[in-house]
Specification:
Blueprint: H1 3-19, H2 42-49, H3 53-60, H4 69-78, H5 83-97, H6 114-122, E1 127-131, E2 137-140, H7 142-147, H8 149-152, H9 161-167, H10 170-174, H11 178-195, H12 200-212, H13 214-221, E3 230-237, E4 241-251, E5 259-264, H14 272-278
Antiparallel strand pairs: 1-2, 1-5, 3-4, 4-5
Helix pairs in contact: 1-5, 2-3, 2-4, 4-5, 9-11, 12-13
InterPro entries: Cro/C1-type_HTH, Lambda_DNA-bd_dom_sf, MLTR_LBD
GO molecular function: DNA binding
Protein name: XRE family transcriptional regulator
C-alpha cells in the first residue's frame, strides 16, 4: 500500500469516525446555531483528547510520525472507537511510519498442515473450514462442504468468500442476512489491508471487487472495520432449507493468518433436523480440501 494511500486511509477513517458522533453524545455543550459539519469538529476532538487542534489536524492528515500509544488511546476514547477500530487505527499508524515493515503473518497462505485437516475431520458434529485472511477457503470437513456447497462451486481456486458474497447471485439466497455478511466481509478485508499493507495479492482482490461490485465499493469507502468472531449466521441451504447456526472463528496460533470457522447447532434447537440431514451428504461430498465441483457454475 503506497504511503499516500495510507495517509488518505488515516484521514478518511478519522473523519468518518468523528462525523458519526454529535457533541451531545460526546458530552460537549451545544450552543445552538447551525453547524457546518456533521458530527464533531476537529477542535472538539482535540478538546476531548486533550491535545492541541494543530496536533490533531496533523494526525488527521496522515502525518503520524512520533504519535504515541497514549495519544492513540486518547483519540480512541474521544472518537468512541471499539477494540477493532482501535487496532485498525494503530495498524494504519504503523503502516504509515514503517511502510516497508515485513508483516508477522501471511494473510494469503494457500496451504494447511495435515494436522489442521485432521482437526477438521474430527469435528463430526460441526461444519468447519480453514480460511486465510483474504477469505480464501483452504480446507473443509464433510459437513462444511455440505453446508457451503454453492460457495465451493467455483472456477476460482481456492474459493473466496468475498467473491462469492459480491459476485455470485446465489449468495443472496444462501445468506438470509446478506447485508450483514457483506458488511463483515468488507470489514475483515479492510482490517487485513491495514495490517499487511504490502500484500499485493490482497490489493489485487480488493481492486477486482471494487471494480466488479458497486456494493463492495460503497462499503469499502465507508471505512468500517470488523472481526468475524462469534454469533449466529442465518442460511438458506438449497437442499435442507433454513438454518440458524452458531459460529465461532478460532485463530490458529501456530499458523498466523489462518482461522478455523465452525458452525454448530444444539440438538434441541430449531432447524436441528435440517442440520442433521447435512451430516448425511451425497457420497461424492467427502471431506477434502476444496476443489472445483463436478458441475461448476458460470465463471465469476
Amino acid at each position: 500500500m503506497p504511503a499516500d494511500t495510507v495517509r488518505e486511509d488515516i484521514r478518511t477513517f478519522l473523519t468518518s469516525r468523528r462525523a458519526r458522533i454529535t457533541p451531545k453524545e460526546a458530552g460537549l455543550p451545544d450552543f445552538g446555531g447551525r453547524r457546518q459539519v456533521s458530527g464533531l469538529r476537529r477542535s472538539e476532538v482535540a478538546q476531548l483528547a486533550a491535545i492541541s487542534v494543530e496536533y490533531y489536524t496533523r494526525i488527521e492528515r496522515g502525518n503520524v510520525q512520533g504519535v504515541s500509544e497514549d495519544i492513540l488511546d486518547a483519540l480512541s476514547r474521544a472518537l468512541r472507537l471499539n477494540d477493532v477500530e482501535r487496532a485498525h487505527l494503530a495498524a494504519l499508524v504503523r503502516a504509515a511510519n514503517n511502510p516497508h515493515r515485513v508483516p508477522d503473518r501471511d494473510g494469503g497462505a494457500s496451504h494447511v498442515r495435515p494436522n489442521l485437516q485432521q482437526i477438521l475431520d474430527a469435528m463430526t458434529g460441526a461444519a468447519a473450514f480453514v480460511r486465510n485472511a483474504h477469505l480464501d477457503i483452504l480446507a473443509t470437513n464433510a459437513l462444511a462442504r455440505a453446508l457451503y456447497t454453492e460457495a465451493l462451486d467455483s472456477d476460482e481456486q481456492p474459493p473466496n468468500l468475498a467473491r462469492f458474497v459480491f459476485r455470485d447471485p446465489r449468495a443472496r439466497r444462501f445468506y438470509r442476512d446478506w447485508e450483514g455478511i457483506a458488511h463483515d466481509a468488507v470489514g475483515s478485508l479492510r482490517t487485513e489491508a491495514a495490517r499487511t499493507p504490502a500484500d499485493t495479492d490482497l490489493a489485487d482482490l480488493i481492486d477486482e471487487l471494487t471494480t466488479c461490485s458497486e456494493e463492495f465499493a460503497q462499503r469499502w469507502d465507508a471505512h468500517d472495520v470488523e472481526y468475524y468472531r462469534s454469533g449466529q449466521q442465518r442460511f438458506h441451504h438449497p437442499g435442507v432449507g433454513d438454518l440458524d447456526l452458531d459460529y465461532d472463528a478460532l485463530e490458529v496460533p501456530a499458523d498466523p493468518g489462518l482461522t478455523i470457522v465452525t458452525y454448530t447447532l444444539a440438538p434441541t434447537a430449531p432447524h436441528a433436523t435440517a442440520f442433521l440431514r447435512l451430516s448425511h451428504p451425497h457420497p461424492k461430498a467427502r471431506s477434502q480440501t476444496p476443489g472445483p465441483a463436478a458441475d461448476s457454475g458460470p465463471p465469476r
